[in-house]
Amino acid sequence: MRLFRALACCTLLLVGAVTSAAAQEHVMSDGETKTVLHGFTDLTYRTGGANTGRTSAFGLGQFDLYITSRISDRLSFLGETVFEFDDASSEFVVDVERVIAQYALTEHLRIDAGKVHTPLGYWNNAYHHGLVMQPTIERPQLVQFEDDGGPLPVHTVGVQLSGRDLSDAHLGFDVLLGNALGNRPTTDGRNEAASVTLALHSQITSALRVGVSGYRDHVRSGTPTPRGDSLRAPMTQTIGGGFVAFFADRAEALVEGHQVSNRSAGRTSSSPSWFAYAGVRVGGRVVPYVMHEDVRLSDDDPYFDADRFQRETLGIRFEHTARSVLKAELRSRDRRGFDRATELGLQLAVAF
Amino acid sequence: MGQRSLPGDVVRLARAVAVFALLATAVPRTAGAQIAVVVHPSNGIEELSLDKLRRLFLGQARTFPAGDHARLAVHSGSSATFDRAALGLQPEIVRSRWMAMIFRGESTSIPTELATPDDVKRFVHDHPDAIAFLPLSQVDASVKTISIDGHRPNDAGYVIH
Fold first, then answer.
1. From the list B63, B69, B95, which residue is nearest A322 (CB)?
2. Residue B108 contacts A, CB cutoff 8 Å
3. Does the interface predicted TM-score (ipTM) exceed 0.85?
4. For residue A295, which of A167, A309, A323, B63 is within the disulfide window of CB 3.0 to 4.6 Å?
């Protein structure tokens, strides 16, 4: 019964959201620059119960304001600010997720400077905070945000050179020089420009994209770790991964994997993780899908909390428009130290 | 009041469903209007591959084969047909792809959307780097129609209709 109530609420909200989303773009122009304001938000309902660690409830997602501004033919600005409720402080917090100045060197080459999505794999660059574009309710654990326990450095502050649609092989690349793990948006003595990310990919057809990426970082001792303590010795982190992504009219599939190796005090621990997603479009707007995830964080890792996380997801997505999407999912999670937990999720995601 | 038999009701229901299904599926599928891909008359290009056309209108490529910038414009009245026939995607998926590219910072704007064929012709005539599409019946000498995969509109192998 609660589920039907939740579905009814989501449907009502969807109608309202679609109405408000009719205004496609919010443009400010002074004749020389054109600034466009976009936004994303979502409402998610999750069932609770045994082993999930929570009660059934609605959750207000991130309220994401996204600005693009074309300053000249070659120079543009992109800013993304997220407002979200922080459980720890019981307050809404503001997070600047991206601030990027872009300069187009040619039609195929550009330089980005600022806080960017680290070009690791496919998901992290294709789907970020705007859940309306994301095929599932939640990000795979492998590419979860750093402050939500994800093992990859999904944001980096630095300078990036990118190439797209190069040669007949439609190659692309990204070279990013950035701050080390635990980076902060300002220089306050805890930063160190020590990470390098390299990515090479090819848009083989308009639907098929493949790529590999690598990341190397030197992290100072004393850097805070995700488990709450600090690194006892300097650490070198190396990440290698790849993906195959196929998104066509009727079918979509993505396989992505990364191995994170942390070397500290003469010992190296490796953590391989991957996920696979597949969906089939039915009748134009409905996409049933499945996803499997497997994340392993090594027992003797100097940086991560040891973990083994597996999750299977069965879902269905209704794309009412490109700007309003309703998703329903049944997820079964098996996590080390916990009993298997099954939950149902509903999500309404909109762009405005 | 006469009592109707259950098998009789089932037969009537089956007939109704069959008639509905027939009506729903027997709507004749007429060939849609031909859509022409046009460029500025001064543009030296005479032909594009369908793959290159897809990449351009999905934002995966930004230049003509010779390397010159391509400025995109779409005729809103023809875009649903173009999206399905040329890009092989539902119109909402195409919108979603462009929105995602703006979100990734790979584009600052979507293609210029124009309401009428005259607006499209005017836009293409005013921009030597433009590429657009509009109904073939509306094409005149102010723009140049190009072949797609070696086929002109109205050829047997032309796919954008």
1. B95
2. yes
3. no
4. A309
